[in-house]
Amino acid sequence: MVFYFIILGMLGILFLLSGQVEITGEKKVPAWKLPFFRSASFLRNKLSLAGGPKEDLETEKLADALLILFLGLGITLLIQIVMPGAEELPGTGQLSRPEKGEGNLTWGLQAEIEGLEGPEDISVEVGERELTDGEKQQLLERAAEELDQIILGENPSPDEVRGQIELPSELFDGRITVQWIREPEKLVDETGLLSEDIPGEGAILQLKAILICEDREWICERALHVYPPVRTEREELLYQLRKAVKEADEATAEESELTLPLEVEGKKVSWRKSEISTVGICLAVTLLAAAAMYLAREQEYRKKEKERARQLLMDYPGLLFQLSLLLEAGLTMQNAFSRIAMGYRDQRHPKKRAVYEEMLAACYEMQSGIPEREAYEAFGKRCGETCYVKLGTMLASGLQKGSQGLTEVLQKEAREAMDTRRQLARKLGEEAGTKLLLPMILMLIVVMVILMVPAVMAF
Question: Rounded to an integer, what distance in angstroms lies between the CA atom of residue 157 and that of residue 250?
Fold first, then answer.
């Protein structure tokens, strides 16, 4: 719960610090989402995350993650308010006992022992008010098979028993009763508690269990090598507490309520029902959802970047041919460049083409007063691909050498780019064939089933 309020406080401080941050970019942000975008922009600047083309994407990813985190924290707080917390048991420590036929009732409780730090989770099983006997012979066989594990309890092996053993007086909800014969009796009491007088080298305990089901009996004999128990102070107190609970349950088996012990080893014990930690679960889900949103945005961005790079390579030869043709027709470099860009703008393509969008941006830069050479070089850098950086450099150097030699260079570059485009198209075709492989295998399986099932049913 403390961790929850720490995160909530950090989120509130972030909202306060980013209250005056200005949001830039072309995308319009809804008013209800504005605080998250301001906080994301503030974090991006402080953490020195990617700028430039990725600036808006990083801001949007962080804003979505903060939104998920905020909603998750709110839902967690609402659940904490609506759902009741740990309920303190009455001072008498009483638990309602189930009636006959309802089955045993298990309570998840927390015990606070005086002198020990923090509560301890303890599961208390309250048996039915009246227990019944009766079953058939096969239950005896099953009980004999399961008795080995039941006797050991939490001990790892019958060759090394250091903790309490289980000597149940009944099995299968009272349908089988068990009588125990212990030899020697001084090694263990009737509840399964090991004696403190066991020698250090251990001793052999012979157990004989008489399983009774109506008028039938089954005798099982087991040998255990018992050693003195080794417990810390905390373990000893909890051990004595469980022992006291079990004794109280047996002592009040015919009563309608079980009275829990309020003192163990001279120390007071208070009881309350165990609290389900919904806060921790909701908080973990919130953090995972925020991280998943951020990673999903990153994956989406990488997919778009890959598609953009592929699109740039596919459009490169066509752009070079257009430039070379317009230059051969007598247009200047700037006029040819602007004509291609403005023609794209006027056609209003349903799907944006990255290279022509960057050309429009370069034209607008030249119209605003940026030198033509710098606009071409910036155009190549914004495209990002090596071929476009090379093109921007060629266009910038062509301003000094003239367009006559540049036309031949562009045509040569266009022919080489066409070869690259063919290789890319071949690669895309191979990828498409690979993606179709799984559906083809599934179709083959369906066809095989259609052919084989009638043949098999005919026999």
Answer: 28
